TrEMBL record:
The protein's name: Pterin-binding domain-containing protein
SUPFAM superfamilies: 6-hydroxymethyl-7,8-dihydropterin pyrophosphokinase, HPPK, Dihydropteroate synthetase-like
GO MF annotation list: 2-amino-4-hydroxy-6-hydroxymethyldihydropteridine diphosphokinase activity; ATP binding; dihydropteroate synthase activity; kinase activity; metal ion binding
CDD domains: DHPS (cd00739), HPPK (cd00483)
Cross-referenced InterPro entries: DHP_synth-like, DHP_synth_dom, Dihydropteroate_synth-like_sf, Hppk, Hppk_sf, Pterin-binding_dom
Domain Pterin-binding, chain residue ranges per copy: 243-511
Source organism (scientific name): Urochloa decumbens
Cofactor: Mg(2+)
GO CC terms: cytoplasm
GO biological-process terms attached to the record: folic acid biosynthetic process
Pathway info: Cofactor biosynthesis; tetrahydrofolate biosynthesis; 7,8-dihydrofolate from 2-amino-4-hydroxy-6-hydroxymethyl-7,8-dihydropteridine diphosphate and 4-aminobenzoate: step 1/2; Cofactor biosynthesis; tetrahydrofolate biosynthesis; 2-amino-4-hydroxy-6-hydroxymethyl-7,8-dihydropteridine diphosphate from 7,8-dihydroneopterin triphosphate: step 4/4
Keywords, alphabetical: ATP-binding, Folate biosynthesis, Kinase, Magnesium, Metal-binding, Multifunctional enzyme, Nucleotide-binding, Transferase
One Pfam family here: Pterin_bind
C-alpha cells in the first residue's frame, strides 16, 4: 500500500500493507524487468500488440457521456461491451462532473470498468469505436458534447504508442474525472501484480494514489467539479450532500416493532403520509418479517400483502419527489414491485436466499441494497452465526464477497448500497462494534476495492434488541430516543442513509448533524 493512500481513511494503514519505500522499490524493480512496450509506428508488429491474444488480458476502460439519457447510455454501453468480447468484473462509482477544456456544454457522467478480454488492443479500440457509433456518436469538436466516450486507459502491463492508440491514456494524470474512477478500480493493499504494474505507469513514485491526491483526492468530491452520485428513479442522488432518511413501513402481522399495525391499506397509507410529513426521503415497504425466527412466506403470500398497499401509495400526492423501496429477498417480488413504481430493492440477504434476485436487479436497473447476514432469519442468531474475531473485518470481507457476486451478475457498483446488518447475526456487543466501526469497515473494503469503500452505507438500528438490552426497556416503541442516539453516532461514523420507524426524531437528528458537523445548510 502507498503512503498516499493513508488520506483515504484518516491515518496509518495496517502493517501488512506496502510502505511508500516498498512501493517505490517494487515499482522500480518492475519497471526494469516486466513492462511491455509496443510501438505500432514500425512496420514490424507483434501479434499481441495489434492483434488478438489467446489469453485474457486485464484492461480498464473509461466511460463518459453528456448528451441524452446518460445513465441509460452507460447501461447500453456496458451490455454492448459484454457482447463484444469484454468480460466486465468491476465497476467504478458514478461521477457527475463539470466539463473540461470546452466548458460551455452540459455536465458529464463519468465512470470506468475493469475486466478482461482476448481482443488485442487495436481490436478492442475498433470494437469501442463501433459501440460509440452505434450509440450515436458522430464527429464533433474535440472535447465537445458526446453521447458516449469509451477510452482504453490501461491494457495489461503494456505501453502502446501508435497513430491511433496511446496506452496508458496520456491525459490520465491531469483529469480528476478519469483518475477518480480509475482509483475506484484499485485496492489499497496493492497485493495484485497487475495493479503494481499499472501504478508503475504513474508519473508519481506513490503511483496513481499520489497522482489523485495531487489533484485534491477525496477533498474535491462533492464540489461543483465532481460529485459521486447514485442513479435512482429519474434523478442523480448526491448522497454525500446530506443524510437521507428511510422510513419503515411494515405491512406484516409479526414484525418485531409494529407487526399488525399497518396491514390494512388505509392504515398503511396513513403511516406512509406520516413518515413523509416527518421528513422521510424514502419509504421502505416490507411485507415479510425478517425478525429472528420469523416464518418464511412464499413469494405469492408476500405479494398478496404488498401489492394492495403499494398500488395505493403510488397514487397519493405526498409521494411526489420521494423514493419507494421494497424490502424483499425474492426476485419475483422485486420484479413486480419495480413494475409498479418502486425505485430500489432492499435485500436483507444480499442475494443469498434467492440468488435470482441479482440478475433481476441488474435487468431492472435499480439500486440494490446489499445487507450483511449469516444464515437466514430463522438461523441468524444461532451460536455459530454469532461468532466473530474482528467483527468489522469479517463483516467487510463477507459484504465484499456479496458485492463481487452482485457485480458479476451485472449490477454496477454505482447502483449498490451497503448495509452492515445491525441486529442480524450480531449480538448487542457486536452491534455496538459495527456502528462504532463503520469507518473501519470502509477501510477494510478499500483494501480490496476503493470503489466499494465509497458506496453509500445504510444503517438500520431502529428499535433493535441491542437498544432494548442497553436501555432495559421492553416496548420497542420506547426506544425511539435511543434510536436517535444510535443513528447520530452512525452518521458521525459514516452512514449516509438511516432506516428508522420514527422518521421525525431521526430526520431532525440528521439535519442537526449535517448542519453542525458537515457544515451543510439546513433545507427549508
Amino acid at each position: 500500500m502507498f503512503s498516499a493512500a493513508m488520506s483515504y481513511y484518516g491515518g496509518p494503514m495496517q502493517s501488512h500493507a506496502l510502505s511508500a519505500f516498498d512501493l517505490r522499490h517494487s515499482l522500480s524493480s518492475y519497471n526494469k524487468t516486466s513492462r511491455h512496450v509496443f510501438s505500432c509506428k514500425a512496420r514490424s508488429l507483434t501479434q499481441f500488440s495489434c492483434g488478438g491474444s489467446s489469453a485474457d488480458q486485464e484492461i480498464v476502460i473509461a466511460m463518459g457521456s453528456n448528451v441524452g439519457d446518460r445513465v441509460s447510455t452507460f447501461d447500453r454501453a456496458l451490455q454492448m461491451m459484454k457482447s463484444s468480447g469484454v468480460n466486465i468484473s468491476r465497476h467504478a462509482c458514478l461521477y457527475e462532473t463539470a466539463p473540461a477544456y470546452v466548458t460551455d456544454q452540459p455536465r458529464f457522467l463519468n465512470s470506468a470498468v475493469r475486466g478482461t478480454t482476448k481482443l488485442g488492443p487495436h481490436e478492442l479500440l475498433k470494437k469501442l469505436k463501433e459501440i460509440e457509433k452505434d450509440i450515436g456518436r458522430t464527429g464533433g469538436i474535440r472535447y465537445g458534447p458526446r453521447p458516449i466516450d469509451l477510452d482504453i486507459l490501461l491494457y495489461r502491463n503494456s505501453q502502446i504508442d501508435s497513430e491511433t492508440l496511446i496506452v496508458p491514456h496520456e491525459r490520465i494524470h491531469e483529469r480528476p474525472f478519469v483518475l477518480a474512477p480509475l482509483i475506484d478500480l484499485l485496492g489499497t493493499a496493492c497485493d495484485d501484480g497487475i495493479e503494481t504494474s499499472w501504478h508503475s505507469f504513474s508519473k508519481c513514485s506513490g503511483g496513481f494514489f499520489e497522482s489523485w491526491n495531487k489533484l485534491g483526492g477525496e477533498s474535491v468530491i462533492g464540489t461543483e467539479g465532481i460529485k459521486r452520485v447514485l442513479p435512482v428513479g429519474n434523478r442523480l442522488l448526491d448522497w454525500c450532500k446530506r443524510t437521507l432518511v428511510m422510513g419503515i413501513l411494515n405491512v406484516t402481522p409479526d414484525s418485531f416493532s409494529d407487526g399488525g399495525k399497518f396491514q390494512q391499506v388505509g392504515a398503511a397509507i396513513s403511516q406512509a403520509k406520516l413518515l413523509i410529513s416527518e421528513g422521510a426521503d424514502i419509504i421502505d415497504i416490507g411485507a415479510q418479517s425478517t425478525r429472528p425466527f420469523a416464518k418464511r412466506l412464499s413469494p405469492k403470500e408476500e405479494l398478496d400483502r404488498l401489492i394492495p398497499v403499494l398500488d395505493e401509495i403510488t397514487k397519493i400526492p405526498e409521494i411526489e419527489g420521494k423514493l419507494l423501496s421494497v424490502d424483499t429477498f425474492y426476485a419475483e417480488v422485486a420484479t413486480e414491485a419495480v413494475k409498479r413504481g418502486v425505485h430500489m430493492i432492499n435485500d436483507v440477504s444480499g442475494g443469498q436466499l434467492d440468488p435470482r434476485i441479482l440478475k433481476v436487479a441488474a435487468e431492472l436497473g435499480v439500486p440494490y441494497i446489499v445487507m450483511h447476514m449469516r444464515g437466514d432469519p430463522s438461523t441468524m442468531q444461532c451460536e455459530k452465526n454469532l461468532q466473530y474475531g474482528d467483527v468489522c473485518k469479517e463483516v467487510a470481507s463477507e459484504l465484499y464477497t456479496q458485492v463481487r457476486e452482485a457485480e458479476l451478475s451485472g449490477i454496477p457498483l454505482w447502483r449498490i448500497v451497503l448495509d452492515p446488518g445491525i441486529g442480524f447475526s450480531k449480538n448487542c456487543g457486536r452491534c455496538i462494534e459495527v456502528i462504532n466501526g463503520l469507518e473501519s469497515i470502509r477501510s477494510e473494503m478499500g483494501k480490496m476495492s476503493i470503489g466499494a469503500s465509497h458506496v453509500p452505507i445504510l444503517l438500520g438500528p431502529s428499535r433493535k434488541s441491542f437498544l432494548r438490552e442497553i436501555c432495559n426497556r421492553a416496548n420497542p416503541v420506547d426506544l425511539d430516543a435511543a434510536t436517535v442516539t444510535a443513528v447520530t453516532i452512525g452518521i458521525l461514523k459514516g452512514a449516509n442513509i438511516v432506516r428508522v420507524h420514527n422518521a421525525g426524531f431521526c430526520a431532525d437528528g440528521a439535519k442537526v448533524y449535517d448542519a453542525l458537523l458537515k457544515g451543510k445548510r439546513l433545507e427549508n
